[in-house]
Amino acid sequence: MADKRRIIDIKAVALGVLTDTGGSLVIGAILAVIIVVGLAMNGIPKNQIEAYLHGPIVLILGMVIGFAFTILGGFVAGRVSKKFEILHGGIVGFIGILFGVLFWTTLPMWYIIVSLVGVVPLGMLCGRIAEVSRNRSFET
């Protein structure tokens, strides 16, 4: 039997983090393969492909994808938890930052700063959206 007094729903957080991290990694990997294949088919040398993958266009695209999955993960965590939705969404964002720390040595400072500033609030925002959508579904 689940403890009704528990504030944090581990299942909700786990599903939110899985949505965020899993989705980001899968879509990011697919995108990287498409970019590499496309550039290689156009005769771009390997060193230029590597430089392109670490350039601002790919980094920004990766960040947008990551933010999109943080939004989805925060929403999933909020909906599954059915309580303290904003907190659950924020936890998903915070855990996303912890995973991001693994890659910080290879990322430019601007990317790290934008990620730190954006991830937790986006998770919380979508936790709030989950809360509002849950409350509206009770009204109908």
Keywords:
0% strand; 140 residues; 5 helices
So how many helices? 5
Number of beta-strand segments: 0
User: Nearest-angstrom radius of gyration?
Assistant: 18 Å
* pLDDT averaged over residues: 89
The secondary-structure element order is HHHHH
Helix content estimate: over 70%
| Beta fraction | under 5%
How far apart lie the N and C ends?
A: 30 Å
Q: How many structural domains are formed by the residues?
A: 1
User: Which word captures the global form?
Assistant: elongated
The main pleated sheet reads as:
none
Report the structural category.
mainly alpha
Low-confidence stretches: none
Word description of this protein:
There is one protein chain. This protein has 140 residues and is mainly α. The chain has one domain. Helices cover 81% and strands 0% of the residues. 30% of the residues are buried.
How would you briefly describe this protein structure?
The chain has 140 residues and is mostly helical.
